[in-house]
Amino acid sequence: MKPISRRLFIEETGLGILSTTVLPSVTGSPVEAQVNSPAVSAPRTKITIKVNDVSHHLEVEDRWTLAETLRDHLELTGTKIGCDRGECGACTVLLNEKPIYSCSYLSVWADGQSIQTVEGLAHGDHLDPLQQAFIEHDGPQCGYCTSGQLMSARALLNHNPSPTAKEVRRALSGNICRCSNYNRYVESILAAAKRGQKHA
Amino acid sequence: MKGFTNVNPKNLTQAVTLLSQAQESGKKAAIAGGGSDLLGMIKDDLVSPDLLVNLKSVGGLDKIESNTSGLKIGGSVTLATLSQHPLIRSKYKALAEAADSVATPQIRNTATLAGNLCQRPWCWYFRAGFPCFKAGGRKCYSVMGENQLHAIFGGGPSFIVHPSDTAPALVALDASFHVIGPAGERVASAAEFFILPSKNAATENILQPNEILAEIHIPAPPQQTKSTYAKIMDRATWTHAVISAAVSLEMSNGVCKRASIVLGGVAPIPWPLPKVGQMLAGQKLTAQLAAQAGEVAVSGAHPLAKNGYKIPLTKALVRRTLLSLAA
Ligand SMILES: Cc1cc2nc3c(=O)[nH]c(=O)nc-3n(C[C@H](O)[C@H](O)[C@H](O)COP(=O)(O)OP(=O)(O)OC[C@H]3O[C@@H](n4cnc5c(N)ncnc54)[C@H](O)[C@@H]3O)c2cc1C
Ligand code: FES
Ligand code: FES
Questions:
Q1: Could you tell me the pLDDT band of residue A8, with boundaries at 50, 70 and 90?
Q2: Predicted confidence (pLDDT) per residue in B152-175, tens digit
Q3: What is the mean pLDDT of residues B191-219?
Q4: What are the backbone dihedrals phi and psi of residue A164, each rounded to the nearest 5 degrees, phi first?
Q5: Looking at beta carbons, which residues of chain B come within 8 Å of A41?
Q6: Does any CB of chain A come closer than 8 Å to the CB of residue B124?
Q7: A101 SS3 class
Q8: CA A7, CA B82: separation in Å to the nearest integer?
């Protein structure tokens, strides 16, 4: 049986929880329990996620979004947070090869899944053809939206290696560029597609 | 975000039990589909659940089954899957087009059909935390306020418009909604599932807090049936409909045998137009008839101070959508 810490006891009685099946395994000092701040008492879960082909065993707070876990706990800060509401696209990552907003998906829901972030695109000094094309065609301006644009573009080229300009625009319709450099992004992606999928 | 516990039920019985237990012990529970609406609501303190019941862990709820009598779609099927499904794209086109019109590729990859149908209203007062009917209060701030995007039909006491794109399509396709609760399953037609604020202003549908929308069934359309979903937005993508129209027409030698037209963005529920259906039945769909259908479509509309533009817009949308199918 799990030892019942003072904090767990306070949580249980405080919230009136009777079932232990839904209780998170928390450990903590009595000092924390007295503070009773939500940041301290937030339930946690152990998960395993594969990020850029590396497995990570983590204990996350249930409320952490995937974007928070990637940035604040795996130090993969290439993924950006703009709106934190599914309204900008800066946080786009691939979950099982499909682009999603990592700000709007919980880390616990990604347990056992595979994630690709912008850090997974280059192999050493070899840039992804998309990154190379973004440089050559001046895709990024301020650069804040760029990792999101790259991930949406990567997902597109993975299943449609030679898209039309219209298909590119549609695939990128969930990524806002505040610098409004949309035409250059489309140009870059078409150029990368032309050059071919494979890393040089 | 506020702290909560995420639970991963393996089946619907477990999920319902978790919801009921939470309710009995005075805890707040929320059902999570893809989370694209729910997590934003939690971040904005519009809901503050202690428990998230994650339906993505429920086995089999993400399946699409088809046979000669029709289609069964699990509540957890994503909008991306729906919009790309070959059979749905050919035989149930209004649904594929509606799913494809939602938000962005990223949202469609995680958003579920049940979540789309059960999403809360996107009225700016509700989303900004005003204590309106939808938040359990006793006032609709849009009546005397900014009501550009609000209801022209069926409003009162709340004037929200139902936000789901797939809902009008499913009403037009005669879908039925299978709901699982502590007492087992109950079935409602898509039209019965959504309720007007005059019946209950705090919610948008018949679901009780411990009930789950589990499956959507659509009968196989008769031969020669065509359907489509047309959506007008105030920008090209990534937003709810200003207004929309789902139309299903059963044709025979150029004559319309049966027509079902359901509007989105005009009322607190998907808004069916039975009178338009009646006037089209047995007729050849000409430009003149389509224009008349547009006129009939707006009879009985009650615009607020700032949404009168929805009347000519609705007329034009009904006319154009009918003609696009007749062509
Ligand atoms: C920027 C943005 C743009 C959007 N644009 C559109 C648009 O154009 N068209 C449109 O239709 N929607 C739009 N949405 C709204 C919505 O998030 C999505 O449409 C999506 O389909 C919701 O599905 P989900 O699975 O993510 O729902 P969730 O967020 O998981 O759930 C939504 C609500 O439904 C409840 N719920 C979920 N599943 C069930 C179930 N099985 N039974 C009972 N209750 C359930 C949840 O408790 C919650 O209250 C937009 C959202 C955002 C953030
Ligand atoms: S930060 Fe996720 S969409 Fe803006
Ligand atoms: S480059 Fe600045 S936001 Fe896109």
A1: very low
A2: 999 999 999 999 999 999 999 999
A3: 98
A4: -85, 165
A5: 3
A6: no
A7: strand
A8: 45
User: Whose CA is closest to atom 43 on ligand 1?
Assistant: B212
Is B181's pLDDT higher than 90? yes
Closest residue CA from atom 3 of ligand 2: A86
How do the domains of chain A map onto residue ranges? 6-36, 64-194
Residues of chain A with Cβ-Cβ distance to B36 below 8 Å are 86, 101, 104
Contact criterion met (CB below 8 Å) for B234 and B242: yes
Angstrom distance (rounded) from CA B262 to CA B273: 6
- Which residue in A has a C-alpha nearest to residue B28's C-alpha? A15
pLDDT band at A196 (very low <50, low <70, confident <90, very high): confident
What pTM value is reported for the model? 0.92
List Cα–Cα distances, A27 to A13, A41, A57, B4, in angstroms.
16, 10, 18, 16
**The tokens of A120 are what?**
């997974």
Identify the three-state secondary structure at position A198.
coil
- Domains along chain B with CATH numbers: 5-57 (3.30.43.10), 64-119+163-219 (3.30.465.10), 225-326 (3.30.390.50)
CATH of the structural domain A64-194, one choice from 1.20.1250.20, 1.10.10.60, 1.10.150.120, 3.30.70.100: 1.10.150.120
Confidence class for position A26, pLDDT limits 50, 70, 90: very low
C-alpha–C-alpha distance, residues A140 and B267, integer Å: 42
Q: Which residues contact A61 (CB under 8 A, 6 or more apart)?
A: A42, A43, A44, B3
Q: Which residues of chain B make contact with A89, given a CB cutoff of 8 A?
A: 104, 106
Place of tokens 């978790």: B18
Is the pLDDT reported for residue A178 higher than 90? yes
Q: Cβ separation of B3 and A41 shorter than 8 Å?
A: yes
Q: Can you list the alpha helix ranges (DSSP code H) found in chain A? A: 6-15, 30-35, 38-41, 66-68, 129-136, 146-159, 165-171, 182-195
